[in-house]
Design a protein that fits this description.
The protein is mainly alpha-helical and 354 residues long. Helix content is 90%, strand content 0%. It has one domain (2-353). The protein is rod-shaped, with a radius of gyration of 50 Å. The chain starts with a helix and ends with a helix.
Length: 354
């Protein structure tokens, strides 16, 4: 019995050391998880800072694009104004030319009248010599009148052509303006959809963050409870061991008074700790998944912005190709700064549809 009494303190002390080692390992594991959680929070803050920087950059990019578009529209307006001034000058020149032609017609009419009167006298003198002289002179006068009528009709056709050209220029300007407005509206809608998707992903990520924080808090409370239970069991074991009487007693009495450890409760606490560790690993994987989704959302927003510029460039290239094809077919398509356009309204509609 004395040998058994000498061994028991060593066995209880080993149990106590084992429990202490388990507590130390649990504390180290909890500290490592807390460090990992702190690192994840720092990464989350860094990601949020990147998101804010990306938003600022996107805002700046939109501002720059808006300023470029405004400058381009102002330049187009100036070019159109110059075109209108040129057309106005041409109209005034045509009016001057029309007045000059009218004056020339009046002069020709007066000359024709004088010639007719002179020729009439000559015809009256020579009618007894050449019977066909009157018919010849009348034919010459008719040819002169036809030539004058041809000049007047040519001037009128030129004036009608200039009026048609002005109407075509107005239609071209309105069509280009509508095309630019459609492109701007489509880019704005694409960007708004991308921004809405990005905001939805951010809200989902925020909800996931709150859920993870709540789970981490519950895990902390559970760990503290487990440590408290283990600490209470440890104190009871030590107290029971040192409070046990050292006098020699029968075997049955000794078995009744010897303090024992509740290994089932300790194993249950350790199992709970293992489950909590597995839950922490699951939370870490979920956070990694949230970061990947956030990165995908940012990449999608960048691709949307890049595709917007590429679409504008593609439309410009297609318009230039159609213009070159029209020129190859013999249809003249002048720019906004040209004096005139040599294509009709049907060609303009085909160009717009293409």
């Amino acid at each position: 019995m004395s040998k058994n009494r000498k061994r028991k303190p060593a066995s209880a002390y080993q149990y106590y050391q084992k429990l202490t080692q388990d507590f130390d390992s649990l504390e180290r594991e909890m500290e490592s998880h807390q460090e990992g959680q702190s690192e994840l929070e720092a990464q989350l803050e860094h990601a949020q800072a990147k998101i804010r920087a990306s938003k600022a950059e996107d805002q700046k990019l939109r501002q720059v694009q808006w300023e470029r578009e405004r400058d381009r529209q102002l330049e187009t307006f100036v070019q159109q104004r110059a075109t209108l001034d040129t057309l106005r000058d041409q109209t005034e020149a045509l009016e001057v030319q029309e007045l000059r032609l009218q004056a020339e017609v009046e002069v020709l009419r007066e000359r024709q009248q004088e010639t007719s009167e002179t020729e009439a006298h000559r015809i009256r003198r020579l009618v007894h010599e050449r019977t066909t002289l009157l018919e010849d002179e009348l034919a010459k006068g008719k040819l002169d009148l036809d030539y004058i009528a041809h000049i007047v009709s040519s001037a009128r056709r030129q004036e009608l052509k200039q009026e048609t050209q002005r109407e075509t220029d107005q239609n071209t300007k309105s069509s280009v303006k509508n095309l630019v407005q459609d492109i701007q509206d489509r880019r704005r809608r694409d960007f708004e959809v991308a921004e809405a998707n990005f905001q939805a992903r951010m809200r989902s990520f925020q909800l996931e963050k709150e859920t993870l924080a709540k789970k981490a808090k519950e895990l902390q409370v559970t760990k503290q409870r487990a440590l408290q239970i283990l600490s209470q069991n440890q104190q009871l074991v030590i107290k029971g061991f040192f409070d046990a009487p050292r006098a020699t007693q029968p075997h049955d009495d000794k078995s009744r008074t010897t303090p024992t450890l509740d290994f089932e409760e300790i194993l249950q606490s350790l199992n709970q700790s293992g489950a909590q560790v597995e839950q922490i690993q699951t939370i870490d994987s979920e956070r990694n998944s949230g970061r990947r989704e956030l990165a995908d959302a940012l990449q999608e927003a960048r691709e949307t912005l890049e595709q917007g510029d590429q679409r504008i460039e593609a439309i410009k290239k297609r318009l230039l190709d159609r213009k070159n094809e029209a020129q190859k077919l013999g249809i003249t398509v002048n720019g906004p700064g040209a004096n005139s356009t040599g294509y009709d309204e049907s060609c303009l509609r085909v160009w717009m549809l293409l």
